[in-house]
Amino acid sequence: MNTSQLCPKFEKAMSILSQRWTGLVIYQLLSGPQRFCTIESSIGISGRLLSDRLKHLENEGVVKREVFPETPIRIEYSLTEKGKDLRPLMKELEKWSQNWIDSEDTLED
Amino acid sequence: MNTSQLCPKFEKAMSILSQRWTGLVIYQLLSGPQRFCTIESSIGISGRLLSDRLKHLENEGVVKREVFPETPIRIEYSLTEKGKDLRPLMKELEKWSQNWIDSEDTLED
DNA sequence: GTAACTTAATTACTTTTCGTAAGTAAGTGT
DNA sequence: ACACTTACTTACGAAAAGTAATTAAGTTAC
């Protein structure tokens, strides 16, 4: 049972951002529209989960999928206005990580 | 294999925030030091996971656990400076959620 | 003094999600 | 024809989450 007393909009926003990989996918797309395999290799997510996350973000209206029927065909993912508006938040997280995360203390590769 | 090209500090910061419940726990503690059961009921997390998350956040230096040997004994959780410095980020998420999350589109209770 | 209650957990068990690897469909390059 | 690339999907074992019951230490109620 969820007996939360928090703002539902805030909770919803947090639920999007707190799903594994989702934040990194958005962050990566802030540098511009990109193809599936580019995102995949830049953040180290598996195809299975990237496919899932992009679909989820598309449903939330954060990410846009565009098919360019060139030859070879090209499929690009980009941020919608809603997605782009997360830039200030990402900037804050960048600042925080620079101020507080010790380089000894990062994730193992 | 993680072949990420992102800043390791940013990745680490994101990995903290993108764990389920962790963001809400921090957000809740921004309103001041609180006891276990207060956090539990305010964000709707189970004791099992709250215990886990608080321990994790204590290890990361974001949360501080203090035992007050009064009668009755009181255990309070609060944010460290590192934790308090996440306030601007939370403010950005609040703003974003107000601007972009439709009230029809919130989580079910 | 013992039975019921509270807090801060922990343990046991089930369900959901993740991660790895392999497979697929459509097309390209040689 | 054959290998290669892209954008996925499927299968399956492993890890994490969710639910509920239990515990330990102390409090209050009678």
UniProtKB/TrEMBL annotation, chains A, B:
Domain of life: Bacteria
Keyword ATP-binding: no
Keyword set, alphabetical order: DNA-binding, Transcription, Transcription regulation
Keyword hit for GTP-binding: no
Gene3D superfamilies: Winged helix-like DNA-binding domain superfamily/Winged helix DNA-binding domain
Pfam families xref list: HxlR
GO molecular function: DNA binding
Annotated InterPro entries: HTH_HxlR (IPR002577), WH-like_DNA-bd_sf (IPR036388), WH_DNA-bd_sf (IPR036390)
HTH hxlR-type domain residues: 7-105
Name of this chain's protein: Transcriptional regulator, HxlR family
The organism's taxonomic lineage, starting at the top: Bacteria, Bacillati, Bacillota, Bacilli, Bacillales
